[in-house]
């Protein structure tokens, strides 16, 4: 099997990580392309002492680290300044803390593997994750609209959201209901399933909502690879079903991290 064939199954999930890290599909995908170009240019430098997924993320991490300074801001050099929303928070939270959080909570790496990726120790990873969560939660509070047609999942999400200190201002099960509640309640965060009760689409519901006002959105799906191709406009924040509490927590933290309406004073 060629190196390209080994890496292909992992690319959608690297895009998910990169988008969450940068807060943008465009900028996250640009970093992924840069990592792939580096591999193509020097295949002999690709880490072969670990599995293909770890080697791919390690290559990405090196590209990211070479263009981001932990001691300064996390401004994206491939961007045109669209990450300015996050600057007030980035002064308080180091990029390594957010990387540790996303690698473990969203991407499912063990502390040992995350330590390899960020070139630290497992104890350091765990400390960085704790610091990131504490600081992000201190800075961000949201009114959340949940768009989910499965009652058990909706209740689970509602419990997680409330336990994180946020408010739930509605649970919708169809596109029309979601749009109606959003316009009436004006949530500051939306959690949206893709397939809804009346065969309508959570994506369409979100498009309708975003046509009226801006709000960060996290999509929930059992088939994330379909929305992580990098070939069209796609979600920046994505949770895979079945999800873990820590995954939802990390996604909410990152979505609010880049939301201009909750920038701290």
TrEMBL record:
Alphabetized InterPro entries for the sequence? Bact_response_regulator, CheY-like_superfamily, PhyR_sigma2, PhyR_sigma4, Sig_resp-reg_PhyR, Sig_transdc_resp-reg_receiver
- Gene3D superfamilies documented for this protein: 1.20.140.160, 3.40.50.2300
Domain of life assignment:
Bacteria
UniProt keyword Transcription, yes or no: yes
Which residues are recorded as modified (4-aspartylphosphate)?
Answer: 193
Keyword terms, alphabetized: DNA-directed RNA polymerase, Phosphoprotein, Transcription
A GO cellular component term found in this entry reads:
DNA-directed RNA polymerase complex
Residue span(s) of domain Response regulatory:
143-256
Q: Which SUPFAM superfamilies match?
A: CheY-like (SSF52172)
Among the GO biological process terms of this entry, one is: phosphorelay signal transduction system
* Stored NCBIfam families: PRK09191.1
* Annotated protein name in UniProt: DNA-directed RNA polymerase specialized sigma subunit, sigma24 family
